[in-house]
Amino acid sequence: MAWNPVRGINRRIEQWVTTRVQRLPGPVAIRRQRIYILPTRQGVVFGVMTFALLLGSMNYSNSLGFALTFLLAGLGLVCMHHTHGNLVNLRISARGSTPVFAGETLRFVVAIHNPSRRPRHVIGTGLRQGEWSDHWVDVPAGADVATGLDVPAPRRGRIPAPRFAVSTRFPLGLFYAWTWLELDQSGIAYPKPLGASLPATLEGDEGADHSSQQTGNDDFAGVRDYHRGDALSAIHWKVTARTGELVVKQFAQARRDEIVLHFDRLTAPDPEQRLSQLARWVLDATERGLSWSLVLPDQRVPAGSGPDHCARCLTALALFQSSSAVAS
């Protein structure tokens, strides 16, 4: 790999700056003293060419050459001033993240507020200094614009937002200005759903069973002969009048099935494999509109249904055996 002096300087500056970055809840205002600026590769070439033009003008005492040299030098200085000022006083705040499954990319939403009366152009966010990603935006005067940070989520759990750079190369790309920030926010990575789908018949199945619950006796199921001791209110008088025999109404007791998903009843030796299987079943139960509860060794999620209950159970699986509490 070819030696790049600009990259080496940037790396040394990055190591020095990162020791001064504090994790803050936000919003964080970018002060002038926290902005760093270096010439880009195009800026270095521009400077060398301007210096060569100056030497040529001095050698040949060419007035037109001097005028062109000073014009280009002034253009470079104005460009440096605008690049630096494009970041000053911007306010950066965290806007949360949407949970993903392990192996996917978690995106932290970051809002950029421009309190000034002039727009800011080509503001980018990236995890590495010098990285020029696709996440760049223009921020109108007095407005908020949301952008994002894409962070890999290789495994389940709570993922803290990393340190990131807010940068710009506006207007001509001759200089690169940036500052480091670290916002106090985190995201959730669910276990990757794996394994067999939720069986249609659960009696005796591994890790999941039915928990029946009596809910009442309102469903009419037919009639039977009257027996001594039956309540008079239970007699079906219309049928009795038609047949001449005493009969009473019968009601079927309604059943509501609640699926119970047990971590301990799974036989897979790897706990992560069990969590992935339970995540698969939670998604299947949500898709079928079932009611289910989740039983883990350290907690129990009561029965429920719907997308909110699904998210609560997946969060419990994501944070299993971690120090973080289940998000309510």
Q: What is the number of E strands?
A: 19
Could you give the distance between the termini? 51 Å
Runs in which pLDDT lies below 50 for 5 or more consecutive residues are 212-218, 324-328
Number of helices in the DSSP assignment: 6
Average pLDDT score: 83
**From N to C, what is the helix and strand string?**
HEEEHHEEEEEEEEEEEEHEEHEEH
Provide the number of structural domains: 3
Question: How much is the radius of gyration in Å?
Answer: 34 Å
The percentage of residues in β strands lies in 25-35%
Helix content: 25-40%
Structural shape: elongated
What composes the largest sheet?
6 strands, mixed
Q: Which oligomerization state do the chains in this entry correspond to? A: single chain
Structural class: alpha+beta
How would you portray this structure in words?
It holds the Pfam family DUF58. InterPro entries: DUF58. This is DUF58 domain-containing protein. The protein is α+β, with helices and mostly antiparallel strands and about 325 residues long. About 30% of the residues lie in helices and about 35% in strands. The model is unreliable at about 210-220 and about 325-328 (pLDDT under 50). Helix 5 runs antiparallel to helix 6. It has 6 helices and 19 strands. Strands 1, 3, 7, 8, 11 and 12 form a 6-stranded mixed beta sheet that branches. The protein has a 4-stranded antiparallel beta sheet with strand order 2-4-6-9, with no helix packed on it. It has a 4-stranded mixed beta sheet with strand order 14-17-18-19, covered by helices on one side. It has 3 domains: about 15-190, no CATH class; about 220-250, no CATH class; about 260-320, no CATH class. It has helices at about 5-20, 40-60, 65-85, 235-245, 270-290, 305-320; strands at about 25, 30, 35-40, 90-95, 100, 105-115, 120-125, 135-140, 145-150, 155-160, 165-170, 175-185, 185-190, 210-215, 220-225, 245-250, 255-260, 290-295, 300-305.
